[in-house]
Amino acid sequence: MKYTIVLVAILISSMASCQSKSSKKTPDEVKETFKRMYPGENDPDWHLDKNNNYESHFKIKGKHYRADYKASGQWIETESSIKKSDLPKKIRKKIKSDFDTYKIVEIEEVDHYAKGRFYDVEFKIDGKKKDIEFDKDGNIIN
Question: Looking at residues 77-102, what average pLDDT do you find?
Answer without folding.
Answer: 97
